Amino acid sequence: MARNPIQFQPGLSLPAFLAQYGTEAQCQAALFQHRWPKGVVCPDCGNTTGSLLARGVYQCHHCHHQTSLTAGTLFHATHLPLTTWFLAIYLLTQRKNGLSALQLSR
Ligand SMILES: [Zn+2]
Known about the structure:
This protein is an alpha+beta fold. It is built from four helices and three strands. The protein has one domain (21-105).
């Protein structure tokens, strides 16, 4: 029987995770890189030029649409810091048998 490469992929230790995603700035940089690898793209018109306003809001130079890093993502309108979400995702993905919502909330 062939070895399943997904099942045997190397995990990420908690210290390594915290070194990569331990601060809000690191989580924002990671989310930015995944969402906009070639720079900010306006979700309305697709324009790639814009300005970063206060409050972390990007405004399109073409249509003036404003968007944020988390708008339209899994983290849309969250009141929790990204570090909390990233830790929850880490805990959910590193366990073979998953994690209950009650365990996660603890
Ligand atoms: Zn636009």
